[in-house]
Structures are given as C-alpha cells and as structure tokens.
Design goal:
single chain; mainly alpha; about 110 residues
Amino acid sequence: MKKEWIKPEIRFITEPDIVLGCLYEVYGQEKQAVLSGKNIRHTMIFPFLRMLANSAGSMKDLQTLHRELWKNYQEMPGKEAFVQKGEELLGKEVNGNVWLYEGTQGEKADASFY
C-alpha cells in the first residue's frame, strides 16, 4: 500500500532577524567568494537571501538585496548593527523594488524569478 503525502497546514515562518544574523555569519565565511565576484547562486549566501525573499513578500531582485546587504556588512561594525540595518532595508524601497516586511510574513515571493 502506497502512502499518500498530506501537506501540513502549518506554515513555517522564518523570522528575518534570525536569517539576517545567519547571513552575517555566512558573509564572513564567503567573503573571498563575494570579493572575487563569484555568482551568489553558487555560494551559501543564496539560500539565506531566498529565505528573506520568502518572508518579505514581493521582492524580485535578489542581486539588489545582496548588494545592499553586502554594503551594510562592510560598513557595520557588528552583527547586531548589521541585523538592525537589514531589517530597516527590508522595510523600505530599494532601487524601485518594494521590500515588504511589516505585516506580510508568510506570503510567498514571486516564484517566476527562481
């Protein structure tokens, strides 16, 4: 008898501050790859950017998000400052893309980008 997969009704929501904290650590590990211009899809950075996209709502350009977060990583003196600045970034408009954060948790990002 074949078991049937039943999709769970509970949606898992990853808090952006936790993902940003992890991303800070990953940026430290992947620093050489980023500085050498390696495609972020081939690094550990990409899954964390996708988690942020899934929790933030309607963002399409992960490369823009990465550039802004990387700039913050280089400028911010510590993890807490990076996380705080990242949360501010997710709540405002960047290069014409609206990074929805407040009140949209659990909504999916546009899947056509992936």
